[in-house]
Amino acid sequence: MNSVMLKITGKGFSTFRKHTFALLFVTTLITRIQAQNYDERKVPRYTLPEPLTTSSDMEVKNIKTWEKVRRPEILQLFEDNIYGQMPEYYDKISYEITSEDKTAMNGKAHLKQVLIRITQKDKVVKINLTLFIPQNSTKPKPVFLLINNRGKENTDPERKVKSEFWPAEMLVDNGYAAAAFHVSDLAPDHKDNYTNGVLQLYPEQLKMDNGMKAIGAWAWGASRVMDYFEQDKDIDAKRVAVAGHSRGGKASLWAAAQDQRFAICISNCSGNTGAALSRRQFGERIARINTSFPHWFNNNYKKFNDKEDSLPVDQHMLIALVAPRPVYATNASKDLWADPTGTYLSLKNAEKVYALYHRKSALPPSPPNINEPVYRSILAYHNREGEHNMTSYDWGNFIKFADYHYKKGR
């Protein structure tokens, strides 16, 4: 039998090795994508961490123990193992209205474009906020704040582009202010330049395994916008709903968990490390999200790649951190990647914490049918027919949800 030996040296070997490693990476990535489970029969048996049992095995039976002992423990576990720390200090914050139109939307709205400038030592971060306020009343208005992870044209202040992703006219027509900022102001959504933003203010975070990354930076930005709302007389800062889609929905949950000033949290199609349970191992998994988006979560989170059961928390506990405030989570029927059933179960498993506050959820035992929203509830849910997106259908239900809680009480 004849044999052939391939000998590659010098630049040829370097190129060969580089291409081989690239091929191995792509092959590994494709294998992981194909390995994602979409079969409920293959969901493993799992046990969720108990939100109402402290680290010392004490049962939480009242609000005081939850707020003074267990809630801080859970918040710390999410900081240390997933989302990273949330720095609360900075030297200065200032607000400037850079553009204003009191006759926007054919006279229905007052447009403010606000520059929020945060200074820490010799570094500055600028958040560009677009804000439409209804003109039909002199009273301060409740507001929906969108963490925009899509193109900036989706939140066009000039309204030359009108996107379902942010139907500002719909919000204004229903008596709500519409506000939005773009994630790139806080952390560009790319592994190579995500540090060009908030993390320039806090470079020490990059040296920590539990340091803040992009999702944390976006949530931090939402809180700085909240700082602005508290001093704008046209905005009712007690009625601010923070909303986000997909990765923005992960950030909205983390923002509401960290900052209790947000009155309502909306998490649309947020999936893995958003509203969906990790331990179900359905759709996107931790290893996949950490491989594709290594800049979103802290370094410690990589320890749980393919080891979901080792996590000291799961996402029902993130929702529980928002209690007693209302949370609305959603899915889309064709978006199994975001695990609709796991999202619903996450809400259901957070109910016991809301019960401490005597806030009873109206969610049925099993997920509702497609396009049958449950919004008259402290914990709300719908699974919309269609793709991974945020649409006017979603926003229409978010408005009903806010109406229910603001106008009829909780």
TrEMBL record:
4-O-methyl-glucuronoyl methylesterase-like domain: residues covered: 116-355
Keywords assigned: Hydrolase, Serine esterase, Signal
A Pfam entry, by short name: GCE_fung
Enzyme Commission identifier(s): 3.1.1.-
Recorded superkingdom: Bacteria
GO molecular function, one term: carboxylic ester hydrolase activity
Record SUPFAM superfamilies: alpha/beta-Hydrolases
Secretion signal span: none
Identification of the protein by name: Carbohydrate esterase
